[in-house]
Design brief:
Layout lengths: L2 E5 L4 E5 L1 H10 L7 H15 L1 E4 L2 E3 L8 E4 L2 E9 L2 E8 L3 E3 L2 E2 L4 E12 L4 E3 L3 E4 L4 E2 L2 E3 L3 E7 L10
Antiparallel strand pairs: 1-2, 3-4, 5-6, 6-7, 7-15, 8-14, 9-13, 10-11, 10-12, 10-14, 10-15
Length: 163
């Protein structure tokens, strides 16, 4: 079946045979989406996997799919993205480390379980909250006992992973 293409310049629809459309589509190389688009699509997919408790409510279970190893011993799961802001659940195994970094924008952190410590800086335990404002510098992070942390970033996570 021919595919219709609108020619805005001449206001005449054009038809292409199926085999030409298939050849053109087959010649296209896959491209990686931008990090923001990838995270947005992932957030929608994760929300679709969630339990629908009631209209407007989605529950994602801790043991559900979507966990990815970001660094050795550090696993993260994107919970939601709204605009450029992202919410993550991050699990650090005992002894896990994350490199020092400068914040391109705000990062909110709530330790849910265990503890984390910034070398030469604050030790955060379950229930502790910290906000790092734009330009703040975090030293290397270490979790000797392991931790589960909720993080909210004003920008996509990959922007914070640059040294």
């Amino acid at each position: 079946m021919p595919h219709q293409i609108d020619d805005d310049e001449n206001d005449v629809p054009l038809s292409l045979p199926e085999e030409i459309v298939a050849t053109i589509c087959g010649a296209l190389l896959p491209i990686d989406p931008s990090p923001a688009l990838r995270a947005g699509v992932l957030a929608v997919a994760l929300a679709a996997e969630g339990e629908r408790d009631a209209p407007g409510l989605v529950t994602l279970r801790r043991e559900g799919a979507g966990w990815a190893e970001m660094l050795p011993g550090v696993h993260a799961r994107l919970l939601q993205q709204v605009g450029t802001a992202q919410s993550w659940l991050v699990r650090l195994e005992p002894g896990a480390r994350a490199p020092a970094h400068v914040h391109p924008d705000a990062e909110e952190c709530v330790v849910l379980e265990g503890e984390v410590q910034y070398l030469g800086g604050a030790r955060l335990r379950a229930g502790d909250y910290q906000i790092a404002h734009r330009g703040a510098h975090h030293t290397e992070l270490v979790s000797e006992v392991g931790a589960l942390v909720f993080l909210r970033y004003a920008q996509p996570l990959e922007n914070y992973l640059r040294p």
